[in-house]
Structure to design on (127 residues):
């Protein structure tokens, strides 16, 4: 059974940086399409960034220019570099994976295409 394990969450001040990691365990399929989502007390789960198995990336507008998603297929790991963090970025960040995803990360219904989810890592940004 595929498992996704996130790490790297922490508490930082506004303007700070963090790098999240998501490792895929027990992967017998090969590279997945993957994405980062986040959920906070104020908002429902929303997409943040996606990277497909070929390395094509997409972002939601609120993080463009600040966040960078990448992956290392040899390590079965996806990353999210977060720069210039803002208090509104405070959330539990989850990674997700599926063999193929067709929707855009900005579309709310795209989250339902992902069958594998991690437990999440908490990011807290103070002003």
């Amino acid at each position: 059974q595929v498992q996704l394990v996130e790490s790297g969450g922490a508490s930082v001040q506004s303007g700070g940086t963090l790098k999240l990691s998501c490792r895929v365990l027990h992967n017998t399929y090969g590279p997945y399409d993957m994405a980062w989502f986040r959920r906070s007390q104020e908002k429902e789960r929303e997409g943040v960034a996606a990277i497909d198995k070929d390395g094509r990336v997409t972002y939601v507008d609120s993080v463009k220019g600040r966040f960078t998603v990448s992956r290392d297929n040899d390590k079965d790991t996806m990353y999210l570099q977060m720069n210039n963090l803002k208090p509104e970025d405070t959330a539990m960040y989850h990674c997700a994976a599926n063999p193929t995803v067709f929707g855009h990360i900005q579309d709310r219904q795209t989250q339902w295409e992902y069958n594998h989810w991690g437990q999440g890592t908490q990011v807290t940004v103070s002003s």
Notes: The first strand starts at residue 3 and ends at 7. The mean pLDDT is 96. Residues 67 and 82 are 4 Å apart (CA to CA).
